[in-house]
Amino acid sequence: MNRNEIINRVAAIVLAIVLWVYVISVVNPPTTVTVRQVPVTLLNQEYLDESKLAIAGDGNYTVDVDLSGKRKDLILSPSDLNATADLSGLTPGQNYITVKVTSPSNTTVESIRTEKIQVYVDNLVSVDKPIYLDVANVPSGTEFTVLDLERDLIPVSGAKSLVDMVDHLTVHVDASGLAVDETTEQQYAITPMDAGGNVVKAVKLDSTFVSLSSTLYTVKSVPLYTRVDGAPGYGLELVSSSIPATVSIKGTLLNLAKINYIDAQPLDITDITTNTELPVVPILPDGIELAADNGALIASFTLSDQASLQMEADSSQVVLENLPEGFTAAAEGEPFTMQVTVKGPVETIANLTADMFSYYVDLSAIEEAGEYDLAIYTGTTIGEALEVVIEPAELHVLVESVSPDEDE
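User: That's the sequence. What structure does it adopt?
Assistant: Structure tokens below.
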């Protein structure tokens, strides 16, 4: 390319720029532009407050605006326009409110997209929500410990549908910077969360920060001694038991050094009749707390399925049965108390009463007069198979012959 060609090209470019500046600055033809994402200012918010209503959303609305005017007057940003919508007269439910836009002088608003914005209005409520701590980066062998939390509950206000979504308020704590046995007091941000762990927006918190005093305590595992008192009811046998043998405790290094074991409150299994679980409650010295990794401290007791019941009966209740003809029979001696032990399923034993049993001796094998020690048997109205043991087990019976004359 020679020198003349270069000069000609430069001159053409300069001429084009001059013509463009002339058109913009002198001719300035009319045109239309679209300004996008113009924020809408909501007016008369106090009407909703006084009516105990709230917008179910963040209240951030934008519109696109078509403007006409001279080209140089249309070099605008969204902040150069004023878009407003009036909240007066809104009612609970779906509402549509008109957006009005004013633009700088020498420009004209041709259209607004969308001129009517959809606003959902709900009842304004305030509900206390619990604070949950989300603690991360806890050093191994230690446990993050709350010494004092300024507040357990924080009022959350806003549209009912949104406030109802808030399950709790999360405080995120990074424990990596905390020192063992030293107290740290700090302000932490609060985030409203739903049950699924998602942030709930467009609600207001009575306080966006909470003061938390905390420390790191050392964790130590020691033996746990638990005494068991009593015995199961209805003579049930204790087949097996499972009682925590160790417990994790936490505290300052100085306090932990004094602890070699922990006693628990005694467990009482007196008269239990089913497999049972009982909470184990450690007796903690001052300055010592349970560590979180213990979970539930539970003792379990497994019983046999066979129970027993002790009853008393009088020998006078024993009936003499099946005496052959030609004999008479009677119990010898003074009446005595019989100790009756009944064994069977616990659900049956639990409902037994003395009047459900009868007692007899069988004389069907008697062939001659004399004195006999005969086994005492029992009968019952219970259909279940029961094992019955009677002590003394025999009744002394005198059997005498009856002459034909006496028989007549």
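Helices lie at 3-27, 45-50, 160-163, 253-256, 346-349, 404-407.
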